[in-house]
Design goal:
It is a single chain. By secondary structure, the protein is of the alpha/beta class. Helices cover 18% and strands 29% of the residues. The chain has three helices and seven strands, in the order βββαβαββαβ. The longest helix is centred in the middle third of the chain and has 10 residues, at 54-63. The relative contact order is 0.23.
């Protein structure tokens, strides 16, 4: 199984093995997410929150309308309208370093990893 590099220096995680069913997951962009429903089902006992624009949110809500543990809100990786230290895992499409907003909403011991559609991306140096 391929490994992806976590955005925390020196740590690598299997793409989904570290994602537990009760995890609270933030997806920093709905822009190119093709397996949104599969990802949501992966955390069926936890929560999935996705960030995007109005059109992306509308499409995501249609795709996951029957799932009560998902929520989609307007925002992006630099502007996350959420409480501090809530997410266990942040899936990020950007190869850039985590933003202060991402670090703020990540719980102590939480993980930041490449979003599934960007698993081949390397973090910025």
């Amino acid at each position: 199984m391929s490994l992806l590099r976590a955005r925390v220096k020196g740590v690598a995680h299997d793409r989904f093995a570290s994602m537990g069913p009760a995890d609270r997951v933030l997806l920093t962009s709905l822009r190119q997410m093709r397996d949104l429903r599969a990802l949501a089902l992966r955390v069926a006992e936890g929560a999935l929150v996705g960030l995007g624009n109005r059109d992306e949110i509308a499409a995501a809500r249609r795709e996951c309308a029957d799932l009560d543990h998902v929520m989609f809100v307007e925002g992006d990786r630099a502007d996350i309208p959420w409480v501090d230290a809530w997410f266990d895992l942040i899936l990020d499409e950007s190869p850039d370093a985590p933003t202060p907003a991402m670090l703020r909403v990540l719980r102590p011991g939480g993980r930041i990893a490449a979003a599934p559609d960007t698993a081949g991306s390397e973090p910025a140096a």
